[in-house]
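ENCODED BACKBONE
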Amino acid sequence: MPPMPPDFLQQLLARRDTWWGRESTGSGQGQSTGFADLDRILAGGGWPEQGLVELLCPLPCPAVLHLLLPVLASDGPGARLIANPPMRPSATMLARAGVPLDDLLILRSDDRATLLRASFEAIAGDTVRLALLWAPGGPLPAGTLRRLHMGAQQGRCLLILVRPRQAGQQPSPAPLRLDLSCPAPGELTVTVHKQPGGRAGQYCHLPLLPEHLRRRPPACRELPALTRRPTPEPALRTPLLRLPAPPACRELPALTRRPTPEPALRTPLLRLPAPVVPEVRP
Protein backbone atom coordinates (compact mmCIF):
# COMPACT_ATOMS: atom_id res chain seq x y z
CA MET A 1 0.00 0.00 0.00
CA PRO A 2 1.58 3.29 -1.04
CA PRO A 3 2.12 5.81 1.74
CA MET A 4 -0.39 8.66 2.02
CA PRO A 5 0.78 12.18 1.27
CA PRO A 6 1.46 14.34 4.35
CA ASP A 7 -1.35 16.76 3.55
CA PHE A 8 -3.94 14.05 2.82
CA LEU A 9 -5.83 14.67 6.06
CA GLN A 10 -5.91 18.43 5.44
CA GLN A 11 -7.21 17.85 1.93
CA LEU A 12 -9.91 15.55 3.27
CA LEU A 13 -11.01 18.06 5.90
CA ALA A 14 -11.02 20.87 3.35
CA ARG A 15 -13.59 19.13 1.15
CA ARG A 16 -17.07 20.67 1.23
CA ASP A 17 -18.81 17.31 1.42
CA THR A 18 -16.95 16.28 4.62
CA TRP A 19 -19.24 16.45 7.64
CA TRP A 20 -17.75 17.53 10.96
CA GLY A 21 -19.58 15.76 13.77
CA ARG A 22 -19.01 18.62 16.21
CA GLU A 23 -19.16 21.55 13.82
CA SER A 24 -21.20 24.55 14.91
CA THR A 25 -23.99 26.18 12.89
CA GLY A 26 -22.26 29.51 12.32
CA SER A 27 -22.88 31.65 15.40
CA GLY A 28 -23.58 28.59 17.57
CA GLN A 29 -27.16 29.68 18.24
CA GLY A 30 -30.03 28.33 16.15
CA GLN A 31 -33.43 29.83 15.48
CA SER A 32 -36.19 28.87 17.88
CA THR A 33 -38.64 26.18 16.81
CA GLY A 34 -41.52 27.85 18.65
CA PHE A 35 -41.69 24.95 21.14
CA ALA A 36 -39.69 25.33 24.36
CA ASP A 37 -39.47 21.57 24.97
CA LEU A 38 -38.07 20.96 21.49
CA ASP A 39 -35.53 23.80 21.83
CA ARG A 40 -34.35 22.25 25.09
CA ILE A 41 -33.34 18.88 23.55
CA LEU A 42 -31.65 20.40 20.49
CA ALA A 43 -27.97 21.20 20.94
CA GLY A 44 -28.22 24.45 18.98
CA GLY A 45 -31.27 25.65 20.91
CA GLY A 46 -33.50 25.37 17.81
CA TRP A 47 -33.36 24.83 14.08
CA PRO A 48 -30.00 25.44 12.40
CA GLU A 49 -29.67 28.55 10.29
CA GLN A 50 -28.83 26.63 7.12
CA GLY A 51 -28.22 23.16 5.77
CA LEU A 52 -30.23 19.95 5.55
CA VAL A 53 -32.54 18.70 8.31
CA GLU A 54 -34.39 15.38 7.97
CA LEU A 55 -37.73 14.57 9.57
CA LEU A 56 -38.46 10.83 9.63
CA CYS A 57 -42.13 9.95 10.00
CA PRO A 58 -44.88 7.80 8.46
CA LEU A 59 -45.86 9.61 5.27
CA PRO A 60 -47.73 11.77 4.46
CA CYS A 61 -47.46 13.07 8.07
CA PRO A 62 -49.56 16.28 7.87
CA ALA A 63 -48.47 17.19 11.43
CA VAL A 64 -45.15 18.40 9.96
CA LEU A 65 -46.82 21.57 8.73
CA HIS A 66 -48.17 22.29 12.24
CA LEU A 67 -44.68 21.73 13.64
CA LEU A 68 -43.13 24.24 11.22
CA LEU A 69 -45.80 26.95 11.44
CA PRO A 70 -43.79 29.03 13.96
CA VAL A 71 -40.67 29.11 11.78
CA LEU A 72 -42.74 29.73 8.64
CA ALA A 73 -44.34 32.73 10.35
CA SER A 74 -41.11 34.08 11.84
CA ASP A 75 -39.82 37.47 10.78
CA GLY A 76 -36.94 37.62 8.36
CA PRO A 77 -36.15 38.37 4.75
CA GLY A 78 -36.48 35.73 2.09
CA ALA A 79 -39.16 33.53 0.63
CA ARG A 80 -40.67 30.33 2.03
CA LEU A 81 -40.98 27.27 -0.18
CA ILE A 82 -43.28 24.27 0.31
CA ALA A 83 -42.41 21.60 -2.26
CA ASN A 84 -44.37 18.44 -3.06
CA PRO A 85 -46.91 18.68 -0.20
CA PRO A 86 -49.20 15.63 0.15
CA MET A 87 -52.25 17.93 0.26
CA ARG A 88 -52.89 21.48 -0.84
CA PRO A 89 -52.11 23.83 2.07
CA SER A 90 -54.96 26.04 3.27
CA ALA A 91 -54.21 29.69 2.62
CA THR A 92 -56.69 30.72 5.32
CA MET A 93 -55.00 28.55 7.94
CA LEU A 94 -51.53 29.81 6.98
CA ALA A 95 -52.65 33.44 7.08
CA ARG A 96 -54.20 32.99 10.53
CA ALA A 97 -50.91 31.51 11.75
CA GLY A 98 -49.06 34.63 10.58
CA VAL A 99 -47.38 33.20 7.48
CA PRO A 100 -46.83 35.96 4.89
CA LEU A 101 -48.59 34.64 1.81
CA ASP A 102 -46.80 37.12 -0.45
CA ASP A 103 -43.49 35.38 0.33
CA LEU A 104 -44.83 31.82 0.11
CA LEU A 105 -44.16 29.54 -2.87
CA ILE A 106 -45.81 26.17 -3.56
CA LEU A 107 -43.90 23.80 -5.85
CA ARG A 108 -45.50 20.68 -7.33
CA SER A 109 -44.37 18.34 -10.11
CA ASP A 110 -45.27 14.80 -11.09
CA ASP A 111 -41.76 14.22 -12.44
CA ARG A 112 -39.25 13.23 -9.77
CA ALA A 113 -36.17 14.63 -11.51
CA THR A 114 -37.89 17.94 -12.28
CA LEU A 115 -38.98 18.32 -8.66
CA LEU A 116 -35.50 17.69 -7.26
CA ARG A 117 -33.82 19.96 -9.80
CA ALA A 118 -36.26 22.82 -9.19
CA SER A 119 -35.86 22.43 -5.41
CA PHE A 120 -32.08 22.55 -5.67
CA GLU A 121 -32.12 25.67 -7.83
CA ALA A 122 -34.50 27.38 -5.39
CA ILE A 123 -32.48 26.68 -2.23
CA ALA A 124 -29.12 27.46 -3.85
CA GLY A 125 -30.21 30.81 -5.27
CA ASP A 126 -29.87 32.86 -2.06
CA THR A 127 -33.55 33.86 -2.27
CA VAL A 128 -35.37 31.19 -0.23
CA ARG A 129 -34.65 31.24 3.51
CA LEU A 130 -36.74 28.18 4.39
CA ALA A 131 -37.72 25.20 2.24
CA LEU A 132 -39.96 22.30 3.24
CA LEU A 133 -39.71 19.34 0.86
CA TRP A 134 -41.64 16.08 1.01
CA ALA A 135 -39.36 13.48 -0.53
CA PRO A 136 -40.71 12.01 -3.78
CA GLY A 137 -41.38 8.31 -4.05
CA GLY A 138 -38.46 5.92 -4.01
CA PRO A 139 -35.14 6.02 -2.15
CA LEU A 140 -32.88 9.03 -2.45
CA PRO A 141 -29.21 8.30 -3.26
CA ALA A 142 -26.55 9.61 -0.92
CA GLY A 143 -25.21 11.82 -3.71
CA THR A 144 -28.58 13.54 -4.12
CA LEU A 145 -28.83 14.19 -0.39
CA ARG A 146 -25.28 15.55 -0.29
CA ARG A 147 -26.04 17.84 -3.23
CA LEU A 148 -29.16 19.19 -1.52
CA HIS A 149 -27.22 19.79 1.69
CA MET A 150 -24.46 21.66 -0.12
CA GLY A 151 -27.01 23.67 -2.12
CA ALA A 152 -28.76 24.73 1.10
CA GLN A 153 -25.43 25.81 2.60
CA GLN A 154 -24.54 27.73 -0.54
CA GLY A 155 -27.87 29.59 -0.56
CA ARG A 156 -27.91 30.01 3.25
CA CYS A 157 -31.25 28.23 3.35
CA LEU A 158 -32.73 25.86 5.90
CA LEU A 159 -33.93 22.79 3.97
CA ILE A 160 -36.25 20.47 5.90
CA LEU A 161 -36.69 17.16 4.11
CA VAL A 162 -39.58 14.88 5.11
CA ARG A 163 -38.72 11.23 4.51
CA PRO A 164 -40.30 7.88 5.45
CA ARG A 165 -39.22 6.34 8.73
CA GLN A 166 -37.47 3.45 6.96
CA ALA A 167 -34.93 5.95 5.60
CA GLY A 168 -33.49 6.30 9.11
CA GLN A 169 -31.58 3.05 8.56
CA GLN A 170 -29.65 4.61 5.67
CA PRO A 171 -26.70 6.98 6.15
CA SER A 172 -27.35 10.64 5.41
CA PRO A 173 -25.21 13.79 5.29
CA ALA A 174 -27.91 15.70 7.21
CA PRO A 175 -26.39 16.91 10.51
CA LEU A 176 -29.80 16.87 12.24
CA ARG A 177 -32.30 14.02 11.93
CA LEU A 178 -35.50 13.84 13.98
CA ASP A 179 -38.00 11.01 14.30
CA LEU A 180 -41.69 12.01 14.52
CA SER A 181 -44.68 10.00 15.74
CA CYS A 182 -48.29 10.89 16.58
CA PRO A 183 -49.39 8.99 19.72
CA ALA A 184 -52.75 10.81 19.84
CA PRO A 185 -54.67 13.28 17.67
CA GLY A 186 -53.15 16.75 17.95
CA GLU A 187 -50.00 15.50 19.70
CA LEU A 188 -46.50 14.86 18.37
CA THR A 189 -43.53 13.02 19.85
CA VAL A 190 -40.12 14.17 18.60
CA THR A 191 -37.07 11.93 19.11
CA VAL A 192 -33.53 13.02 18.23
CA HIS A 193 -32.07 10.51 15.78
CA LYS A 194 -28.81 12.40 15.19
CA GLN A 195 -27.58 15.91 15.95
CA PRO A 196 -24.21 17.68 15.90
CA GLY A 197 -22.78 18.53 19.31
CA GLY A 198 -25.55 16.74 21.22
CA ARG A 199 -26.83 13.37 22.27
CA ALA A 200 -29.24 11.18 20.34
CA GLY A 201 -32.23 9.46 21.87
CA GLN A 202 -33.71 12.48 23.62
CA TYR A 203 -37.41 13.06 23.05
CA CYS A 204 -40.25 15.40 23.94
CA HIS A 205 -44.03 15.54 23.58
CA LEU A 206 -45.51 18.53 21.80
CA PRO A 207 -49.20 19.57 21.77
CA LEU A 208 -49.98 20.88 18.31
CA LEU A 209 -53.66 21.71 18.92
CA PRO A 210 -55.57 23.25 21.84
CA GLU A 211 -56.85 20.87 24.49
CA HIS A 212 -60.50 21.09 23.45
CA LEU A 213 -59.53 20.07 19.89
CA ARG A 214 -57.32 17.19 21.05
CA ARG A 215 -60.11 15.41 22.95
CA ARG A 216 -61.76 12.57 21.12
CA PRO A 217 -65.44 13.17 20.35
CA PRO A 218 -67.92 10.83 22.10
CA ALA A 219 -69.57 8.00 20.24
CA CYS A 220 -72.67 8.77 18.22
CA ARG A 221 -74.93 6.82 20.56
CA GLU A 222 -73.79 8.99 23.49
CA LEU A 223 -74.50 12.28 21.74
CA PRO A 224 -77.76 14.05 22.66
CA ALA A 225 -80.39 14.43 19.99
CA LEU A 226 -79.91 17.58 17.97
CA THR A 227 -83.59 17.80 16.92
CA ARG A 228 -86.46 18.49 19.31
CA ARG A 229 -88.88 15.63 19.65
CA PRO A 230 -92.51 16.50 18.84
CA THR A 231 -94.78 16.91 21.86
CA PRO A 232 -97.47 14.18 21.92
CA GLU A 233 -101.06 15.40 21.72
CA PRO A 234 -103.07 15.15 24.98
CA ALA A 235 -105.45 12.21 25.20
CA LEU A 236 -109.19 12.98 24.87
CA ARG A 237 -111.16 12.57 28.06
CA THR A 238 -114.38 11.50 26.28
CA PRO A 239 -114.32 8.47 24.01
CA LEU A 240 -114.67 9.05 20.32
CA LEU A 241 -118.03 8.30 18.63
CA ARG A 242 -117.56 5.25 16.53
CA LEU A 243 -119.62 5.30 13.33
CA PRO A 244 -120.57 2.12 11.50
CA ALA A 245 -118.53 1.27 8.48
CA PRO A 246 -120.09 2.30 5.17
CA PRO A 247 -121.64 -0.51 3.10
CA ALA A 248 -119.77 -1.99 0.23
CA CYS A 249 -120.18 -0.49 -3.20
CA ARG A 250 -121.99 -3.54 -4.52
CA GLU A 251 -124.77 -3.13 -1.94
CA LEU A 252 -125.57 0.45 -2.96
CA PRO A 253 -128.49 0.93 -5.40
CA ALA A 254 -127.56 1.90 -8.88
CA LEU A 255 -127.95 5.56 -9.64
CA THR A 256 -130.05 6.22 -12.77
CA ARG A 257 -129.62 9.27 -14.84
CA ARG A 258 -132.58 11.57 -14.90
CA PRO A 259 -134.20 12.02 -18.36
CA THR A 260 -133.49 15.30 -19.99
CA PRO A 261 -136.70 17.36 -20.40
CA GLU A 262 -137.74 18.15 -23.98
CA PRO A 263 -137.27 21.74 -25.02
CA ALA A 264 -140.42 23.92 -25.05
CA LEU A 265 -142.03 24.86 -28.35
CA ARG A 266 -141.29 28.30 -29.55
CA THR A 267 -144.82 28.76 -31.21
CA PRO A 268 -147.91 28.88 -28.93
CA LEU A 269 -150.37 26.01 -29.03
CA LEU A 270 -153.70 26.45 -30.99
CA ARG A 271 -156.54 26.94 -28.57
CA LEU A 272 -159.92 25.48 -29.82
CA PRO A 273 -163.26 26.87 -28.56
CA ALA A 274 -165.28 24.76 -26.19
CA PRO A 275 -168.02 22.70 -27.89
CA VAL A 276 -171.59 24.06 -27.65
CA VAL A 277 -174.10 21.54 -26.29
CA PRO A 278 -177.80 22.26 -27.38
CA GLU A 279 -180.31 22.68 -24.67
CA VAL A 280 -182.96 19.93 -24.56
CA ARG A 281 -186.51 20.91 -23.43
CA PRO A 282 -189.06 18.43 -22.08
In short: The two ends are 191 Å apart (CA to CA). The longest strand covers residues 187-194. The beta strands are 51-56, 79-83, 104-107, 128-134, 158-163, 176-181, 187-194, 203-207. Confidence is low (pLDDT under 50) at residues 22-28.
